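Subject: design request, 239 residues
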């Protein structure tokens, strides 16, 4: 039995609230269990210097944990993000760019900001899942709306999987993540293709059979998250 009573292959309760803030065209609060992340997406009419004059736009992501998101308090990143935040924001950016055609964005940048309000495990995977919904809303509320199907090649979502007491468990809260024997983060598209698989043995090596089970569990979990994204976006779902 897991700490919260869930089945091994069961997601935590997931809720996506769109239009959570007033100013960003894409604004989503994603809640996965007790983890809550605010994901916003905005469009800027400029690109990084290395893309000036080139026929494509760009997408970049930033990630931060707010001071009150953990106990004890996490110090605010006042000058530059710490190494963990840099790693996660690069993952978010790579994941979103994997499903976005940057050519129609020529001369523009999509800015994605993921700010963790409450951290109880899986903040990076929740950020990716919520940020995709925010990006769809941001595109839909600009003059790029008519090109949404050209820009958005697929959806993307992510989930954590681990081995706890010898059992493969989906969607780890902190109490499980902090003691996992094996810890994975898996990013996949809505059509079932892999974007990134991050996995490591924390306390003991894992077998090929366990790896296959981990991937199968992640695939099923991401299929469920994709349906939640689709239901949340309704008529804005591009496909």
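Subject: RE: design request

Done. Sequence follows.
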């Amino acid at each position: 039995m897991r700490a919260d009573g869930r089945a091994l292959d069961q997601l935590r309760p997931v809720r996506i609230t769109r239009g959570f803030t007033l100013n960003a065209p894409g604004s989503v609060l994603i809640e996965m269990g007790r983890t809550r992340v605010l994901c916003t997406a905005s469009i800027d009419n400029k690109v990084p210097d290395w893309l000036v004059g080139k026929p494509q736009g760009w997408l970049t992501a930033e990630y931060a944990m707010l001071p009150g998101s953990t106990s004890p308090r996490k110090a605010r990143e006042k000058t530059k993000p710490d190494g963990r935040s840099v790693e996660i924001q690069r993952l978010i950016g790579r994941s979103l760019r994997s499903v976005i055609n940057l050519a129609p964005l020529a001369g523009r940048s999509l800015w994605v900001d993921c700010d963790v309000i409450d951290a109880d495990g899986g903040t990076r995977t929740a950020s990716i899942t919520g940020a995709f919904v925010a990006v769809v809303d941001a595109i839909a509320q600009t003059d790029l709306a008519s090109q949404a199907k050209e820009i958005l090649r697929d959806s993307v979502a992510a989930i954590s999987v681990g081995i706890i007491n010898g059992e493969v468990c989906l969607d780890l809260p902190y109490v499980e993540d902090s003691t996992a024997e094996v810890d994975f983060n898996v990013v996949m598209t809505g059509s079932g293709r892999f974007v990134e698989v991050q996995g490591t043995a924390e306390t003991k090596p894992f077998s090929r059979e366990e790896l296959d089970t981990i991937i199968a569990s992640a695939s099923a979990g991401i299929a469920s998250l994709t349906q939640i994204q689709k239901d949340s976006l309704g008529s804005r779902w591009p496909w």
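The chain has five helices and nine strands.
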